[in-house]
């Protein structure tokens, strides 16, 4: 089946109107379309069935029998004319029911898919179907499916996000680096390339690293960072913090290599930051504001006694 054509048809207002009008509105347009695309009869047929099923209509062929017959013949199905006093053969009815169920499930799954992307330098608040809250940090992506949420509370995350999970059944966060499982809690996840960082603020968090196959259970104010296979356990003595620093417009670094500081800061600004190779492993401890590019550069370079120069949309940090 041509999935791209199928998706475009079930989202095409003209095609939907044509189907709902019993193939009378824009008939010449869509009849010509069918004649010109004989290899896509099966896809067109499934699109028709999906649209009518979403409207709650029963599938019979009293109207426009010739048109639907042409489509069915193309996929090798037997065409049977139906009158008001003639019943659909049970085997054929069951076959159509099974086919329509599969099509409907596929269509509903496709319709239920949601994706949210935060822009460079901006945060984005997303409310999930169970009223859990996710604040995406800059340049992050969150995906989930509303149609499967009732039996599978699960999201996919690329980048960094702070989760405030409503009480309920198990809640999963899937990333390219690992999986986080929680129950009624708040926590931060940062997953990108070879960097996987999870920190728990309330409740308990189970972390599974896909590459090392290691598992960790985190209590409040505990975290784990896995970078290039190296595991670092984190803890926070300040029990007054209830969310990560980035939510208040700044980042905090403790003995972090300059090259990694730049990677974190880069997602907040459009300007490209490059670090001289001879200083990229110098370590920074301190706060860096993320709401002003010039101020951020000063907070990075001044404590390390470094300099920077700007050239159009690029910045070079050197000693």
Tags for this entry?
alpha+beta; Jelly Rolls; Phage tail protein beta-alpha-beta fold; 3 domains; 13-stranded mixed sheet; three-stranded mixed sheet
Walk me through this protein's architecture.
By secondary structure, the protein is an alpha+beta fold. The protein folds into three domains: 3-112, no CATH class; 118-235, Jelly Rolls, CATH 2.60.120.1440; 249-318, 3-Layer(bab) Sandwich (Phage tail protein beta-alpha-beta fold), CATH 3.55.50. Helix content is 29%, strand content 32%. Strands 1, 2, 3, 4, 5, 6, 7, 8, 9, 10, 11, 12 and 13 form a 13-stranded mixed beta sheet that branches. It has a three-stranded mixed beta sheet with strand order 15-18-17, covered by helices on one side. Strand 10 and strand 11 form a beta hairpin. The termini are far apart. The model is unreliable at 56-68 and 70-88 (pLDDT under 50).
The CATH class name of the largest domain reads Mainly Beta
In CATH, the architecture of the largest domain is Sandwich
**Overall domain count:** 3
Overall average pLDDT: 81
**What is the CATH topology of the largest domain?**
Jelly Rolls
* Biggest sheet character: 13 strands, mixed
Which radius of gyration do the C-alpha atoms yield? 28 Å
Strand-residue proportion: 25-35%
In total, the number of strands is: 18
Gap between N and C termini: 60 Å
Instruction: Please bin the fraction of helical residues.
Output: 25-40%
Count of helix runs: 8
Low-confidence blocks of residues: 56-68, 70-88
From the helix content, strand content and strand pairing, which structural class follows?
Answer: alpha+beta
Spatial shape: elongated
Pattern of helices and strands:
HHHHHHEEEEEEEEEEEEEEHEEHEE
